[in-house]
Design a protein that fits this description.
With about 240 residues, the protein is α/β, with parallel strands linked by helices. Helix content is about 45%, strand content about 10%. The relative contact order is 0.11. It binds zinc ion (ZN). Zinc ion binds next to α9.
Length: about 240
C-alpha cells in the first residue's frame, strides 16, 4: 500500500519543525505534533489536527466523520494547560538569552551550547557548556544552569521553572531535567548525534518516568543548529 502523502500546507510547516514524516507523526502522536504546530504557527486550525490524525492512521481525511472530528477537538482541549499560551515572542526572547550563553562557550573554545532557566518570567540561572575548561563531562549547559537555579531557589525541585536550551538535550541532561521536575523544556534545534527527545532516544515520551516535563522544539532547526555546525566545521 502506498503511503498517504502529507498535504502541502502541512508539510512546509512540519519541515520547519523537522517533523515532516509519517513515522515521526506516529512516534510523537498527532496531538503532540498539533500542539507543537499550534505554538509555532498560531493561525493553524483544526483541519491540521484532522490531517495529522489521518496521516497517523493512514486513512483518507475526507472520510473522517464529524463525530470523530469533535472527538479529536475534545482530546486536544483536554490537554490543557499545554504550552499554547507560551507565546512565540517569549520563546524567542529566552532562546536568544540561551544563545548568548552559547556564544560565551564559543569564546572559551567549548562546544557552543547555552541554557537559561526561567521562573516567574525572570531568568534565574544561566549556563554554558564548560566540559573542557572544568574537565567535567557533567558540565553541560543544562546541568550548570540547573545547579545554579537550585541554589537560587534553595530547592532541588524546579517544578515551576522552564529551561530554554539552544539544542536538544542529551541523555544525561534529560535525566537531570526529569529528576529536577522542570516544567517545560524549550529547545532551538535537534541534535542528531546525541539528542534524547527525538533524535537518538525519546526519554520524555515515557510516562512511567516522566510525569512532569513537557518538551517544545525544535523551534527553528536552521537557525539554532548554525552555531554548533559551524563550530564543528571549523574543527575538521
Ligand atoms: Zn547534556
Amino acid at each position: 500500500m502506498s503511503e498517504i502523502n502529507i498535504p502541502y500546507y502541512l508539510k512546509s510547516k512540519l519541515e520547519r519543525l523537522n517533523l515532516a514524516t509519517t513515522k515521526l507523526i506516529r512516534q510523537h502522536g498527532y496531538l503532540e505534533i498539533y500542539s507543537q504546530l499550534k505554538l509555532a504557527f498560531p493561525s493553524i486550525n483544526y483541519q491540521a489536527l484532522y490531517d495529522l490524525y489521518c496521516l497517523a492512521q493512514q486513512s483518507l481525511c475526507y472520510t473522517l466523520a464529524p463525530e470523530k472530528q469533535a472527538e479529536l477537538r475534545a482530546e486536544f482541549k483536554a490537554m490543557t494547560p499545554r504550552h499554547i499560551w507560551l507565546k512565540p515572542d517569549t520563546i524567542k526572547h529566552f532562546l536568544t538569552a540561551a544563545e548568548e550563553q552559547a556564544q560565551l562557550a564559543l569564546q572559551d573554545n567549548e562546544v557552543p551550547i547555552g541554557a537559561v532557566i526561567v521562573h516567574q518570567e525572570q531568568i534565574i540561572a544561566r549556563g554554558y557548556n564548560r566540559t573542557r575548561r572544568d574537565n567535567d563531562i557533567m558540565a553541560h549547559a543544562e546541568i550548570v544552569a540547573i545547579l545554579a537555579a537550585q541554589q537560587h531557589l534553595q530547592n532541588y525541585r524546579l517544578s515551576e521553572c522552564d529551561l530554554y536550551i539552544t539544542v536538544e538535550p542529551c541523555l544525561m541532561c534529560s535525566g537531570a531535567i526529569i529528576n529536577s521536575r522542570i516544567k517545560r523544556v524549550i529547545f532551538g534545534a535537534c541534535e542528531p548525534k546525541t539528542g534524547a527527545y527525538i533524535s537518538q532516544h525519546q526519554v520524555f515520551n515515557n510516562k512511567k518516568t516522566n510525569h512532569h516535563t513537557e518538551v517544545i522544539g525544535p523551534i527553528d532547526q536552521n537557525h539554532y543548529s548554525r552555531l554548533i555546525s559551524t563550530f564543528f566545521q571549523n574543527k575538521s
